[in-house]
Amino acid sequence: MTAPLVELVGLQKYFPAKEGILKAVDGVSLQIHQGETLGLVGESGCGKSTTGKLLVRLLDPTAGQIRYRGRDITSLKTPEESRKFSRTVQMVFQDPYSSLDPRMSVGEIIEEPLRVHRLFPARRERQQRIRQLMDYAGIAGRLINSYPHELDGGRRQRVGIARALALDPEFLVLDEPVSALDVSIQAQIINLFQTLQQELSLTYLFIAHDLSVVHHVSTRIAVMYMGEIVETGSADEVIRDPRHPYTEALVSAIPRVKNRGTRTRIILQGDVPTPVDPPPICRFYGRCPKAMDQCRRPVELLTSASNRPVRCIREEQ
Amino acid sequence: MERPLLEVQDLHVHYKTDDGTARAVNGIDFSIHRGETLGLVGETGAGKTTTALALLGLVPHPPGKITGGRILFQGENLLEKSGKELRRLRGNRISIIFQDPMTSLNPLFPAGKQIAENLTLHQNLPPREALKKAGELLARVGIPASRSGNYPHEFSGGMKQRVVIAMALACNPALLIADEPTTALDVTIQAQILEILRDLKEDFGLSLLMISHDLGVVAEVADRVAVMYAGDIVETGSVGQVFEEPRHPYTIGLLNSLPDIDAPRGESLQPITGLMPDPMELPRGCSFAPRCPRVMPVCEEQKPPVFSPDQGRGVRCFLYHQTGGQP
Fold this sequence. Notes:
The complex is a heterodimer of chains A (317) and B (327). By secondary structure, chain A is α/β, with parallel strands linked by helices. Chain A has helices spanning 48-55, 79-88, 106-116, 123-136, 153-165, 183-199, 211-217, 235-240, 245-253, and strands spanning 6-17, 20-32, 37-41, 63-68, 71-72, 89-92, 171-175, 203-208, 220-225, 228-234, 302-303, 309-310. The two termini of chain A are 29 Å apart. By secondary structure, chain B is α/β, with parallel strands linked by helices. In chain B, 31% of the residues lie in helices and 22% in strands. Chain B has 10 helices and 11 strands. Chain B has helices at 48-55, 83-89, 111-123, 127-140, 157-169, 187-204, 215-221, 239-244, 249-257, 297-301, and strands spanning 6-17, 20-32, 37-41, 64-73, 76-77, 94-97, 175-179, 207-212, 224-229, 232-238, 314-315. Chain B has a 7-stranded mixed sheet with strand order 6-7-8-3-9-10-11, sandwiched between helices. A 4-stranded antiparallel sheet of chain B has the order 2-1-4-5, with helices on one face. In chain B, helix 3 (111-123) crosses helix 4 (127-140). Chain B is globular, with a radius of gyration of 21 Å. Chains A and B meet through helix 6, helix 7, helix 8 and helix 9 of A and helix 6, helix 7, helix 8 and helix 9 of B.
């Protein structure tokens, strides 16, 4: 097997909180291979967005490594190195309403990264590049002088995508990129991501809470709960044959339009907890319908017979 | 057949703005029977929330105005009621829960007291008795009565929504309107709330109007579905009819846009091209005509009436003109 494009090794991000230490990301190890889409799913506060921000270096990790093409990028020395890295890795945010500067036109927003990185210094070529990027993202050329407030949500997200593509990145972190969009528009943007991936040979980390969407776009899926990865596998494995009780509950809770009422619904009790000073036991213990006394100890990711890492002691048996 | 609890007939709601008139709701008809759940689905701007507000006499005026139609609740036209009469109905016979529970909760009062307020107001219960009943209602939605003295900020999002549900049910309403009640919640919490709504519906014999953009949520709780687009109801029918054999090209488009978790991967989605029309510049004919893959010349000329291609279904589309539907 070829070396992964991106590798997270024991990645941690802790934040000081009023009641203790918030362990937002607590020992996450993941591999993302060139050309694939890794779906990262979980509920609010599970640490999936923080993981995404660590990957594009919007945050610095508390501990652990992020290797990009084998090289640790958490300790880039010079600004030059950082700049070079930021050209290869870009991010698309959930909320096109707040991630675009309302005072800049579509053209200016897409142009900004080109200016910052001093690419296409000749005005004419730069304008050509902007047109090309708008074309990639499916934005009509006549909108080049429009402002974000004049665009609908789908078009705004396309502007965010064009901006992310400006520096010709290899790897995109997509953080809930379609959650704010209506169904019919959501489908347009999902298809756009898939076309771009093929045409520009991109690798994606697709962060979302909607399992149907993640299953549709991902090669593999990693499930996160309270700062930890609880299960990874191919998209079909994780959805069709979930091994961790949390994944099982998540999959069963998806409201389905087709095949209504054909499966048993597992309703988890309690709220999604925040990992502030979590006790050294299985983090799902309090809500797990299958919890046993033996679960009251730290649980590692165990590789089951099916060769999939699952953080549950039932995999030992 | 028993008369429906709620009958909406040819309802029109317009908003007057400096730039023109936004026709948010354009002559919709639907009914809800006792104990029935109607799901009202549609995308942003389709007119779902405006419809809900109209039912409660809460369309902000100005700029909004109900410009036509009738809303018959237990046989009486709500549009002819005075403000005072409507206030007596709201929170009593008809309740609503919104997406954001803080729309309905006052941050300065304990949860139990806010539920009790409804009971003293509408049922003249003495304060102590009202508080006791508030505690019972909280327990009914899965919150220990001992938390009755907690303030809204002491509850999580899912718990706040439970408090709002308890408040909405306090006076035993005949109709509960739920406007995107789980949209802000996580999947596992959403599942809890949907379960509570299903249970309560049975226990209280409630009729439920479930408004959501999430087709899955509606499919899980509704008996019948109405699909809204640009101020029109374009299709109605049972959940099975609408979601398994959709007839209107918009409904078909919506379902094809949705990733199906049970389908094999790798097939690309078939989105609907284009955007919903601006409510200030609605097309002359069918409002879906500009995006419709099966558009015909007649669709651009006149607005299609409702045809009924099969029992219990209504489709606002000329495609069903030939197939036995009656105008």
